[in-house]
Amino acid sequence: MFFDKLREYLGKGEKFDVVILDPPSFTKSKRSVKSALSGYREINSTAMKILNPGGILATASCSHHISDEMFMNVIIESSIMARKKIRLIEWRGASPDHPILPSMPETKYLKFGIFQVID
Fold first, then answer.
1. Which residues are annotated as catalytic?
2. Cβ atoms within 10 Å of 18's Cβ, excluding its own
3. What is the distance between the alpha carbons of residues 70 and 12, in angstroms, rounded to a whole number?
4. CA angle centred on 69, ends 60 and 118, rounded to 5°
5. Taking the complete model, does pTM exceed 0.85, yes or no?
6. How many Å from the N-terminal Cα to the C-terminal Cα in the chain?
7. Of 11, 16, 34, 65, whose CB is crowded by the most CB atoms within 10 A?
8. CA dihedral sign of residues 6, 85, 22, 41
9. Which contacts (CB < 8 Å, 24+ apart) does range 19-24 have?
């Protein structure tokens, strides 16, 4: 659904001031991390292409097998693919009502970034 709708907007030449990506988890296991990263790369680069100059991309991952560093790298790679410059406005994780338990790494699952996408 995410992929098809984004491609549809791109194909029609539609542009937006803000795009919010909040997909379901793209991976439930370590075995599928590579394909999950590919999926995140595709939706983020396509989203960047449909933003007006100076537009805002709010993007999230709730895949606990994807680390903050991996997700940030995917967003950087997406900007390169889209030929866009990005500026990080804010980086967040889960709110306090979703505590992170140090003994359970899977509780640190949510990554959320807000970026300005510059032409």
1. 62
2. 11
3. 31
4. 60
5. yes
6. 26
7. 65
8. positive
9. 19/47, 19/50, 19/51, 19/55, 19/56, 19/57, 19/58, 20/58, 20/59, 21/47, 21/57, 21/58, 21/59, 21/60, 22/60, 23/60, 23/61, 24/62
Identify residue 45 by its one-letter amino acid code. S
Q: Are 61 and 26 in contact (CB under 8 A)?
A: yes
Choice among 22-31, 43-52, 55-64, 110-119 with the minimum mean pLDDT: 22-31
Q: What is the CA radius of gyration of the chain?
A: 14
The structure tokens listed for 39 are 């999926």
Q: Kindly report, residue by residue over 36-52, the tens digit of the pLDDT.
A: 898 899 999 999 999 99
Question: Which residue's structure tokens are 């907007």?
Answer: 9
Closest to 48 (Cα-Cα) out of 89, 10, 4? 10
Tracing tokens 């805002």 back to the chain, one arrives at: 56
